[in-house]
Amino acid sequence: MVFTLPVIETDRLILRSIEYTDVEALFAYFSRDEVTRYYDLESFDDRDQALALIQNWKDRYERQEVVRWGITLKSSDLLIGTCGYHNLKKKHLKAEIGYDLHPEYWGQGFMKEAVSAILTYGFKQMALNRVEALVHVDNSASRQLLDKSGFKQEGVLREGLMKNKSAVDAALYSILKREYVMERKCPKESLRRMYT
Q1: Could you tell me whether strands 94-101 and 130-136 are parallel, antiparallel, or unpaired per DSSP bridges?
Q2: Which of 21, 33, 60, 180 has the most CB atoms around its CB within 10 Å?
Q3: Residue 173 included in any domain
């Protein structure tokens, strides 16, 4: 089966499927310690690791375990990050959100734009009722992004994540569909354009 996702267009970004041709771009930023500092992976030192990650996302998408988009600028098809859902629980209409971005694009609002788009997709097209995020407590940038995106912190899971073979505390965030619709005044046709 071909790995395909609906393409989502925002003001500045195109969210599309992640392809094997993205391996160099993915390796370029997953090989940087500032990117993997709070990630559940170590920094890559081989392009085969980036290839394996792409394959993992493809395999898990086909098993309906993960929905992951590549993030590109409208002006270029170069992958600058990824975002999407994992830990999908269809029975409970919930999923966990995840994202990563090349450091050259940090602080410009790109990830907030991407997160807003996939929240709309998750609540409307995937019929999710709840989206969660689990974040290393020291990851202030990610926590600020979640705050700005309408998530609420529910608490801290003591030693809830493993990093470098050590248990670390994790902040649990969530946003509910009714909160997203109410706070964002999400219109009926909220995605600018979506096509396959």
Answers
A1: parallel
A2: 180
A3: yes
How far from 74 is each of 6, 13, 97, CA to CA, in Å?
16, 5, 23
Residue 195: band (very low, low, confident or very high) from pLDDT cuts 50, 70, 90: very low
- pTM to 2 decimal places: 0.89
Q: Which residue has the tokens 């959100």?
A: 97
Query: Is residue 140, in this structure, part of any structural domain at all?
Result: yes
For residue 53, CA distances in Å to 23, 39, 60 come to 9, 13, 11
The verdict on residue 2 lying in a domain is no
